[in-house]
Design goal:
The structure holds two protein chains of two kinds.
Chain A: H1 2-24, H2 29-56, H3 62-91, H4 105-112, H5 114-145, H6 151-159, H7 166-176, H8 189-196, H9 211-236, H10 240-248, H11 253-264, H12 266-281, H13 285-290, H14 300-310, H15 314-345
Helix pairs in contact in A: 3-15, 4-5, 4-15, 5-9, 5-12, 6-9, 7-9, 9-12, 12-15, 14-15
Chain B: H1 9-13, H2 19-23, H3 37-49, H4 51-75, H5 79-84, H6 99-106, H7 111-142, H8 148-157, H9 164-176, H10 183-207, H11 211-219, H12 224-253, H13 256-261, H14 270-280, H15 285-305, H16 307-315
Helix pairs in contact in B: 4-15, 6-15, 7-10, 7-12, 8-10, 10-12, 11-12, 12-15, 12-16, 14-15
Classes of the chains: A mainly alpha, B mainly alpha.
InterPro entries (chain B): MetI-like, MetI-like_sf
Family (chain B): Belongs to the binding-protein-dependent transport system permease family.
Protein name (chain B): Carbohydrate ABC transporter permease
Chain lengths: 346, 321
């Protein structure tokens, strides 16, 4: 019996090999594009098939229908999110190749070694500065372009960086920061400006610790458009009678902004700040593209990649991923709590 | 056929979550559109007349465009010029070329291949999660089953899980399954990571469709499948578009997932390639600038042409980062 099964297995393996190879080793543009179409059709087809089956059998029990609808998504989430997350938490208590249980050592290392303390300090800088600066700039911009003739165009300008990759943004800004000696012809715009006002040129990305700020600017540049969009919508939604009443009371300009606009859009401000903070916590591409985490600019998300896939220290990498996860939680709790409060008011 | 009346237009064009941040802002609701024409004009004049406001707007707008503009100009300059002086010198001595783009596309950097890889990675990674999430969102919105609320909250909560925490175990699973180095790893990973947000967004939109529509179809004897395809799907198109743009930009611009699962030469997308180029040949600005814009052109076009849906999606509230 075993032999027959074994043989059958070999047969199947032998005869499906071309198919598997076609599915797994795509080379050449035509093959890749064909595979892409096959992949899409396969998934959409399987979904359609499940639905058709459920629909066909009129007497399908209710639970079967439910499983057909939510089953695939829940299975995927369990396989790709829940199980790996638990595995990572588990392996964060093990050594670099997972062979030995070492308790909290990875975490102790991450919090006590000066190399990682620097990483944590940088991450804190990012998470504090990016949301505040991006929101501030986005808010100011939303207010000054609101209801002007160029509103739509002006908004698109700030919004565009959101559509490009952080790798692309990193390159754009690396070029802004490009360094040449003071006496030489400059190619980076910022150093050119320094030369024009009579200062020495600067290694923006190399000089620590201020290089962190120059990386942070890139993220602010990307995220301000998001803040602007949400806040502009919130400002628009302020009821006109409130504005009118305030105006009759003699409120104008800055005072109007301080006492009417800000309190009215507070819930939107919270959403923007927390969303950007969460995005910033996980930022990796900018640091990777611009400094590779060198010159004292690494952040937790970058260090996670460095330890997991460069230094091949799976235990420490896992611990850093868990730290990242734990750092997100207070932000989310704050966000949810604020949502609750504003819903109660409503 | 069902006798369902055609849905009111407002459903199809309005996005449920749109009022999410806005609606809670104060009593009296949304004042949009209440302003009569002349008053709007008055406000606009008032704002424009403030030189400070205009000045700030212009300064910020310049700061947000000059960096991109500078690299764009650079990408069209001869490589010798790029090395020699700054891009602003084109004002006095203009000289342009397409050579950089040609070199980047077909030269040793073979951007054409990576461009195709980006495309091949992105499209299934948009379609797969949408088809899975639509089904799940339908069940969460319109099928009564035990533990529905709890499951939905769990899925919602999973949005905050940083994908970093899943990468190493996923990679070893793919290795065990012999999938490593194939497109399937990237497709599966992106699809799964997108599911919580997709289900959440689509569920919110579905919930907003009037119950009477679904009930009417049910009375007419339509099953779940029929309701799903004939009643809900057409109404959901704006929502699907919003999410599709999100996901498209997310996947096309992603570096981390692609680095971990798709860094092998055969399947690596543009982002990985350009990031590597920046690391190893950081001063070859003629290739870097052209390459950067080759990678940006598709998302910028998608974004500009579908901006309306994108903004709606944003306003519907997302916490994915």
């Amino acid at each position: 019996m075993d032999e027959i099964l074994n043989n059958a297995g070999l047969w199947i393996e032998y005869y499906t090999r071309p198919v598997r190879e076609w599915l797994l080793d795509a080379d050449g543009a035509g093959h890749k594009l064909a595979l892409m179409v096959v992949a899409i059709l396969l998934f959409v087809g399987v979904m359609g098939g499940i639905l058709a089956l459920v629909d066909r059998s009129r007497r399908a029990p209710g639970w079967l229908v439910t499983v057909a609808f939510v089953g695939p998504a829940l299975a995927a989430i369990t396989f790709g999110l829940i199980y790996p997350a638990l595995r990572t938490i588990y392996s964060s208590f093990f050594n670099r190749n997972g062979s030995e249980f070492i308790g909290m050592d990875n975490y102790i290392q991450a919090f006590t070694q000066s190399q990682f303390q620097l990483v944590l300090r940088n991450t804190a800088l990012w998470v504090l500065l990016v949301p505040v600066l991006a929101t501030l700039i986005g808010l100011i911009y939303a207010v000054v372009v609101d209801r002007t003739r160029f509103e739509k165009f002006a908004k698109t300008l700030m919004f565009l960086p959101m559509s490009i990759s952080m790798v692309g943004a990193g390159i754009i800004w690396r070029f802004m920061y490009d360094y040449k000696q003071t006496s030489a012809e400059q190619t980076g715009l910022l150093n050119q400006l320094l030369v024009m006002v009579g200062l020495d040129t600067k290694q923006f990305l190399l000089d620590s610790p201020e290089n962190n700020f120059f990386l942070i600017i890139v993220m602010v540049w990307i995220q301000a458009g998001f803040a602007m969009t949400i806040l502009a919508a919130a400002i628009r939604a302020i009821p006109d009678d409130i504005v009118e009443a305030a105006r009759l009371d003699g409120l104008t300009g800055i005072k109007m902004f301080r006492y009417i606009t800000i309190p009215s859009i507070r819930p939107a401000l919270v959403v923007v700040l927390t969303t950007i903070a969460m995005a910033t916590l996980k930022v990796f591409d900018i640091v990777r593209t611009m400094t590779n985490g060198n010159f004292g600019t690494s952040v937790v998300a970058n260090e996670f990649y460095e330890q997991s896939f460069r230094q091949l220290n799976a235990g420490l990498g896992a611990a850093l991923a868990v730290i990242l996860f734990v750092l997100v939680i207070p932000i989310v709790i704050y966000n949810v709590r604020q949502m609750r409060i504003s819903e109660e008011i409503r | 056929m069902t006798t369902t009346p055609p849905p009111p237009q407002t459903i199809a064009t309005r996005v449920p979550g749109e009022t999410d941040p806005g609606a809670s802002l104060g009593p009296g609701g949304n004042g949009r559109g209440k302003v009569s024409r002349p008053r709007r004009g008055a406000i606009a004049k008032e704002r424009l007349s403030s030189p400070w406001a205009s000045g700030i707007a212009i300064v910020i707008a310049i700061m947000w465009t000059v960096p991109t503009f500078g690299l764009l100009v650079t990408s069209f300059r001869p490589s010798a010029d790029i090395r020699q002086d700054g891009w602003w010198n084109v004002v006095t001595s203009p000289s342009f070329t397409l050579q950089n783009y040609q070199d980047a596309m077909t030269g040793s950097t073979r951007m054409v291949d990576y461009f195709i890889n980006s495309l091949v990675i992105t499209l299934p990674a948009v379609f797969i999660p949408i088809s899975l999430a639509l089904l799940a969102a339908y069940a969460f919105a319109w099928i009564d089953f035990k533990g529905r609320e709890l499951l939905f909250v769990a899925v919602f909560a999973l949005q905050i899980v940083p994908i970093q925490i899943t990468l190493i175990p996923l990679l070893s699973t793919y290795n065990d399954w012999g999938l490593a180095g194939s497109f399937w790893t990237v497709w599966l990973s992106h699809s799964i990571f997108a599911l919580p947000l997709a289900i959440f967004l689509l569920h919110n939109f579905m919930k907003d469709i009037p119950k009477s529509l679904v009930e009417a179809a049910r009375v007419d004897g339509a099953g779940h499948v029929k309701i799903f395809f004939q009643v809900l799907l057409p109404l959901l198109m704006p929502a699907i578009a919003a999410f599709a743009i999100f996901q498209f930009l997310w996947v096309w611009n992603d570096l981390l997932v692609a680095l971990v699962f798709g860094s092998s030469q055969d399947i690596r997308p543009l982002t990985v390639h350009i990031a590597e180029l920046a690391g190893t040949r950081g001063q070859t600005w003629h290739l870097l600038s052209a390459g950067a814009f080759i990678s940006m052109i598709v998302p910028v076009i998608v974004f500009l042409s579908l901006q309306r849906y994108f903004v709606r999606g944003l306003l519907a509230g997302s916490v994915k980062g």
